[in-house]
Amino acid sequence: xxxxxxxxxxxxxxxxxxxxxxxxxxxxxxxxxxxxxxxxxxxxxxxxxxxxxxxxxxxxxxxxxxxxxxxxxxxxxxxxxxxxxxxxxxxxxxxxxxxxxxxxxxxxxxxxxxxxxxxxxxxxxxxxxxxxxxxxxxxxxxxxxxxxxxxxxxxxxxxxxxxxxxxxxxxxxxxxxxxxxxxxxxxxxxxxxxxxxxxxxxxxxxxxxxxxxxxxxxxxxxxxxxxxxxxxxxxxxxxxxxxxxxxxxxxxxxxxxxxxxxxxxxxxxxx
Length: 271
Known about the structure:
Number of helices: 12
Largest sheet: 5 strands, parallel
Radius of gyration: 20 Å
CATH superfamily of the largest domain: NADH:ubiquinone oxidoreductase-like, 20kDa subunit
CATH topology of the largest domain: Rossmann fold
Number of domains: 2
Shape: globular
Oligomer: single chain
Order of helices and strands: EHHEEHEHHEHHHHHHH
Distance between the termini: 57 Å
Helix content: 25-40%
Structural class: alpha/beta
Number of strands: 5
CATH architecture of the largest domain: 3-Layer(aba) Sandwich
């Protein structure tokens, strides 16, 4: 990942913002080291609290947003950021689908609050954790838990250059083939979401004989009917199949619909 991004062009102002998340995707940006220096020749970091307490107000040419919307204040703040940003890119599973915290969407969040906090009356929270795109228009979504650093650099470079980022939409299975991995689902009957998960991780888990957890969300044209049938045929109960889909990207539309269908069918069978 070498070479300058742009030359002879005014720097673009960059804002990096956090909502409900673990900060992992922002750290991925800080960890690109030499590439971050190259990005510095093209962008002017105006707001990035993970990196510096020195900030400048918008408008911003580019905003990178990590995290999901989980409070009324979040919902208001993302509107302000969107209004101040020419381009807005969401980074990571929390921002693109609601993250692991979106599991609250299937539960009684008030019960969770009562169990965890001694004074829940002081909290102001929403019953759901939702993606940024559920609240404001988003110019590009970069998935992952955390995001792939090379993909993140590609997104910033592309937007600085005025082109669409080149991010793969095929499944993890292709990455497995490129790594020379023996399919863990076929050879070892290990539950694996690789066939329906977008590439980006380099097939890390299957490379170590573990099934894919779906960290990068649904791949293009993901066949959830086939993958859920495969999981069931391996002995997983309907609840276990649904749980496989309810991970970092549980609230991604394709995963959410498939898991809801499974649980609704299970409820119907009990009635």
